[in-house]
Design brief:
Layout (H helix, E strand, L loop, with lengths): L3 E5 L5 E5 L9 H9 L47 H14 L5 H4 L13
């Protein structure tokens, strides 16, 4: 659960925004539905939502903050002649995630300019 948001201040040093959480859940659908009902703000990642921003149901806030890098995930198979099932798995990942830009980022207009995104 997120109790604080890590970001970089104007000098490039790590800083935190402490959140006063009303309640914590680890069920994404519950978070999104409660925010959609207008009952609260929610901290979610782009992958957690679908078309709610495109449909005007959710609005990204605090997009000017320079979020700290939370890391990246890589799937690498070091051999050039990988087994068929490995090649098929990687192709499926590309379909699910996207090739150059993750699909979930395309669901948020202007995502590439939010949170000091350097992509």
């Amino acid at each position: 659960m997120i109790d604080k948001i890590k970001y970089l201040d104007n000098t490039g040093n790590e800083a935190f925004i402490q959140l006063n959480t009303a309640y914590k859940v680890n069920e994404v659908e519950m978070l999104i539905n409660t925010a959609l009902a207008g009952e609260m703000l929610t901290v979610t990642t782009a992958q957690m939502i679908e078309n709610e921003v495109l449909e005007g149901k959710l609005i990204p806030i605090m997009t000017h903050i320079n979020l700290a890098d939370y890391g990246k995930f890589y799937a690498v198979y070091p051999h050039r002649n990988s087994p068929l099932k490995t090649r098929l798995f990687i192709e499926t990942l590309k379909e699910v995630v996207g090739v150059k830009v993750p699909i979930w980022e395309t669901r948020i207009p202007g995502f590439d300019k939010m949170y000091n995104n350097k992509n």
